[in-house]
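Q: Entry one of two.
A:
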Amino acid sequence: MVYEWLAEQVGGLRVADLACGEGYGAAVLAGTAAEVVGVDANPEAHEHARLRYRRQNLRFERGLVEDYTGPCDAIVFLQTIEHIAEPGRLLERLAAAAPVAYITTPNRVTLAPPGAQKSDNPWHLREYTLAQYAALLGPHFSRVEMLGVFHARKLRVHDWALRLGWERVHSLLRLTKPFYDRFVPAITSADFEVASQGDLEGALDFLAICHV
């Protein structure tokens, strides 16, 4: 869903999608951007992306995000900063490579158990609260606009149902498996939204628009 939202922001620009994985998001961005390069260090992901997504304005490079120097008009860097050992040094390189960077990370408050410093994801070196994320980004950019990724439509209704006791009801009625066997595959990108208003501290992810 975030890639669809970002595609609306980067129309006509030269974009680098760093840590692009298997290339789906880079291909979405290429639907509106002038040029897109997807960069990922994983050889299997790079090969999949190279073979699966073919457009004249899209290419893939195998490499570390820490080595990317640009230049380009915009950088997209999603759900990866929490994996980086020296995020400050990387952010300096991103700021030098493009005038704007779109950077997301999971919200520690909604991901980790209450009071924990991080979730049990072994690949996350650090997870951030809203204040910690703003403090990480602030020194490297002239302006940072913080948005949040939230549940919408079916997922928002599901959240309300859980608050009203749905979890206990489906368990008592033995509906858990048949309900979720249908519900989970029905979730689409439309069931998430990017928003600037509301309780950002309760967002699923933070989406920072970082201006040099």
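Q: Entry two of two.
A:
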Amino acid sequence: MVKLLENTFRAVNIGLVNEIALMCHKMNINVWEVIDAAKTKPFGFMPFYPGPGLGGHCIPIDPFYLSWKARQSGFECRFIELAGQVNASMPAYVVERVAEALNTVKKPINGSRIHLIGVAYKRDVNDLRESPALDVIELLAKRGAALSYTDPFVPELSHGGQVMKSVELATALHAPPDCTVICTDHSVFDYAMIAATTTPVVDTRNALQQYDAPTIFRL
């Protein structure tokens, strides 16, 4: 129960900040700046950050297990399940942002070459379990995108019965894709190179926070 509380605490707070991110986008507010300002308070605030969804073997799963177990005792975990719904919706929101980014260059998702940067579920690991990048790949593929990815920690992955292999970042950006999506902010990536691209970049991790260009679309 202690472990379930710990992971549910994180999942619920990530769900909250993901919802705040969705709201801030509608209100044209930079959610990352809001969080940075809020965390200057010396007490009473713990920063959580939005992203493309939850990954790993614990945080996406444990809250639903807890909710299922509670339901067996006649208790409904409405708060926990709502957070789960918000977090589960984030990959679809990322695809919406990709569509918005491509729209600025008068291109649809269908037929566009979209390159994902990072597919592991979190920074600097090779773990693909429950990675939101896999959901983003699936959703983009259903809409007709031609997909590729770069992740030095994940040399290859299987999608739709086909094996995709990681492409060197410099190679991928040499002939720029129609849109680039940063799903996992590995520390080994050359973010200056990514920011310098002339095509849209959807940054779901605020990895390009020090760069400001009209081609950068933050979560």
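A: Comment on entry two: Residues 2-26 form the longest helix (25 residues). Strands lie at 113-117, 146-150, 156-159, 162-165, 179-182, 201-203, 216-218.
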